[in-house]
Every structure is written in structure tokens, then in C-alpha cells.
């Protein structure tokens, strides 16, 4: 039944829209090179001009927040919302099971996924809470300029879950952390009924692998260490307390050596 839910939402997406999404994604293709460890990948990364990137992100997100543009992702402005339909289906499914809706968005920038999905979620819950956990500079900007009755900003998962939350969401962020399993454990400790993952690189090897992601210069100049998760390693932390309801392959793929996947886990 859950599979039908995911497939239904994917199937109603016009094929031409999927083609446009993929065309735009590969126009901004992000190349990868592999390394034997996280430390080696980190050494080979140039990092990025943090202040320049944050200012560019701030300006793009502000246009969306003020209603002057429709959608932004990774500082890039789009004239249409680019949906992850399985993610949206998972959020709708989760929210339909909850009397109130409180979502932790780990690595949610200045509200990208909130603006992507709010049109649908607001039809189910008129007063839902979207709590973004980010690095301190973005949290400070978020609190000053991007907070409203729906969106708020926090430094940690623990801080964002002081009262009971319904969903913890990782949208393509956890693969950039040196110790990602610590954050998965923190999500599990919230006892949220649902944990949702999207756009996360998965491989079928026994061990995680590591790479450097080179961001296309049309977006901004940067390279980061990134982890490709072993499927078995990634799902293992959830096995004791959660059931895997569904998994999916994302429409947008960034690297031929891994598969960007999503998951929805339900608490037992």
C-alpha cells in the first residue's frame, strides 16, 4: 500500500517536467573524485568562500521569502518549484497521521524545502511548524530575517526537539558530515514518529566510501568531502526502533558511482 502511495505521486508528475528537471540538474552537474578516507577527501577539498556563499544564499532565499521569486536551491533561482514527489508523498503521509505537525529540517539552509512543500502541507495543517537546524551563521541570519509563524531556526536537533516533534527530515545534508551516524542517532532519540531521508548517496558495498564533490562554477566555486553510504550501514541504526516503510531512487542523480536515494522510517 505504501509503495502505491509513492508511485501514485510520481506517476502524476508530467513527463515533460521530469525531463526539464533532469536537464537543469545536469546543466549544473557536480563532478566527483574518489578517495580512500574522509580525512583524505577533506584534505583534497578546497572548501568554499563561506561568507560569499552565505551572502549569495541569503539574497536568493530572501527573494523567495519576500514572494518575488518562486523557488531556490543551492543559491540558484528557478521559475517553478522543483518537487521531489516521493518526498512530498512521505511528508503528506506523515502529516496525515499527526494531529499537529512539527518538522525538523536538518541542513535546511534558509527554508528551501519548506518553500518547496508548504503549498501541500498547509492544506492539511493550517498551523504547522518547520524547524531548521543549521550552522550558526545561517541560524543567526534565519532568526533575524527568515523567521515567521511557521519557520524557526536552531543550532542542534536536541534544541529543536525540546517538545515532541513528528518528523525529522534530512534532505541531502547528512552526507557532508564527518560523523553522520551521530546525527542519525540524535534523530532517533527524538522518538519522532517518522524520519524521512532524501537525496542521499547510497552504494551496495559493505563499507562507506568517500569522494570530493566539485560544484560547477555556474553555481559557485567549491569542493567538499562527501560520504557514499553503504546501504546496510545506513539503515542499521534504525532497525531497533523504526520500520522502513518505503525507499526510492531520486529523479536527480549527481554521481555515477552512487545512487541518490530516499527513505521513510516509521517508529515501531
- CATH C-level class: Alpha Beta
Which bin fits the share of residues in helices? 25-40%
User: Care to count the β-strands?
Assistant: 13
Strand percentage lies at 25-35%
- Tell me, briefly, the overall form: globular
Give the termini separation: 18 Å
> In the residues, how many domains can be counted?
1
* CATH homology group: Vaccinia Virus protein VP39
CATH topology: Rossmann fold
Write the layout of secondary structure elements.
Layout (H helix, E strand, L loop, with lengths): L1 H10 L3 H13 L3 E5 L2 H7 L2 E2 L1 H16 L5 E3 L2 E3 L6 H12 L5 E5 L5 H13 L4 E5 L2 H11 L4 E4 L2 H4 L6 E5 L8 H10 L4 E10 L5 E7 L6 E9 H5 L6 E8 L9 E9 L1
Parallel strand pairs: 5-6, 5-8, 6-7, 8-9, 9-11
Antiparallel strand pairs: 1-10, 2-11, 3-4, 9-13, 10-11, 12-13
Give an overview of the whole structure.
The strands form 2 sheets. Strands 1, 2, 5, 6, 7, 8, 9, 10, 11, 12 and 13 form an 11-stranded mixed beta sheet that branches. The protein is globular. The model is unreliable at 1-30 (pLDDT under 50). Strand 3 (71-73) and strand 4 (76-78) form a beta hairpin. By secondary structure, the chain is of the alpha/beta class. It has one domain: Rossmann fold (3-Layer(aba) Sandwich), CATH 3.40.50. Helices cover 38% and strands 28% of the residues.
Amino acid at each position: 500500500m505504501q509503495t502505491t502511495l509513492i508511485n501514485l505521486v510520481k506517476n502524476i508528475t508530467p513527463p515533460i517536467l521530469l525531463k526539464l528537471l533532469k536537464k537543469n540538474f545536469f546543466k549544473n552537474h557536480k563532478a566527483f573524485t574518489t578517495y580512500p578516507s574522509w580525512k583524505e577527501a577533506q584534505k583534497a577539498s578546497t572548501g568554499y568562500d563561506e561568507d560569499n556563499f552565505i551572502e549569495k544564499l541569503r539574497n536568493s532565499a530572501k527573494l523567495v521569502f519576500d514572494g518575488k521569486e518562486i523557488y531556490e536551491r543551492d543559491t540558484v533561482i528557478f521559475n517553478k518549484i522543483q518537487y521531489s514527489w516521493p518526498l512530498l508523498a512521505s511528508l503528506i503521509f506523515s502529516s496525515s497521521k499527526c494531529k499537529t505537525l512539527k518538522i525538523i529540517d536538518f541542513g535546511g539552509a534558509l527554508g528551501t524545502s519548506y518553500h518547496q512543500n508548504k503549498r501541500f502541507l498547509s492544506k492539511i495543517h493550517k498551523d504547522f511548524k518547520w524547524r531548521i537546524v543549521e550552522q550558526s551563521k545561517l541560524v543567526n541570519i534565519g532568526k533575524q530575517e527568515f523567521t515567521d509563524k511557521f519557520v524557526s531556526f536552531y543550532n542542534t536537533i536536541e534544541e529543536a526537539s525540546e517538545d515532541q516533534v513528528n518528523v525529522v527530515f534530512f534532505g541531502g545534508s547528512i552526507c557532508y558530515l564527518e560523523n553522520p551516524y551521530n546525527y542519525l542517532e540524535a534523530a532517533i532519540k527524538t522518538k519522532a514518529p517518522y524520519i524521512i531521508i532524501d537525496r542521499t548517496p547510497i552504494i551496495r558495498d559493505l563499507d562507506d566510501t568517500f569522494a570530493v564533490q566539485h560544484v560547477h562554477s555556474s553555481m559557485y566555486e567549491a569542493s567538499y568531502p562527501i560520504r557514499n553510504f553503504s546501504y546496510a550501514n545506513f539503515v542499521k541504526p534504525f532497525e531497533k526502533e523504526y520500520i522502513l516503510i518505503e525507499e526510492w531512487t531520486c529523479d536527480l542523480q549527481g554521481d555515477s558511482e552512487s545512487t541518490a536515494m530516499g527513505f521513510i522510517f516509521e517508529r515501531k
